[in-house]
Amino acid sequence: MEEGNLNPTKEELARRVGMTAGKVESLLFVARTPISMQKTVGAETDTILQEITADTAIESPNMSVSKQLMRRHVLNVLNKLRPKERRIIRLRFGFEDGAERSLSEIGEIFGLSRERVRQLENRALYKLKKCLVNQGLDAYADTLI
């Protein structure tokens, strides 16, 4: 690297400071100047970057409504199951109190083996899927099995 060169390559920098070119590249990437979220986007607009940047922590209204509708449909379809199957599904997926139970925990409640609970759960999920498909709610059914 020449002393007067103001734009050395990554390889030249790496040699000079005693590290790999990859390490220099990652340091240069981290050191980029941050962009303000208040910066306007485009020359003739008042829109700021924050307005067009999605917040991944917030669910979109469409997705939220879809989930609420799906939950309502699934809860209605649960009535098609036998009482034991319905309770297993409600316990397994936390419909009763928000706490999802393991197969073993449900087995203790019903006095059944973990394997028997798994079989009943699978049968119930199959029935739910079939019901949802019959009602034209195939999109929900694909999430079950």
Would you identify the regions where 5 or more consecutive residues have pLDDT less than 50?
Answer: none
DSSP helix count? 8
CATH class of the largest domain: Mainly Alpha
Strand content: under 5%
> What's the main sheet like?
none
Family: Belongs to the sigma-70 factor family.
Pfam families: Sigma70_r3, Sigma70_r4
GO molecular function: sigma factor activity
Domain RNA polymerase sigma-70: 102-128
Explain what this protein looks like in three dimensions:
The model has no long low-confidence stretch (mean pLDDT 81). The chain has helices at residues 10-17, 21-30, 49-52, 61-78, 83-92, 103-110, 114-134, 138-141. It folds into two domains: 10-52, no CATH class; 61-141, Arc Repressor Mutant, subunit A, CATH 1.10.10.10. It is mostly helical and 145 residues long.
Brief digest:
The protein is mostly helical.
Kindly list the characteristics that best describe this protein:
single chain, 145 residues, mainly alpha, Arc Repressor Mutant, subunit A, 2 domains, 8 helices, 0% strand
Write the layout of secondary structure elements.
Blueprint: H1 10-17, H2 21-30, H3 49-52, H4 61-78, H5 83-92, H6 103-110, H7 114-134, H8 138-141
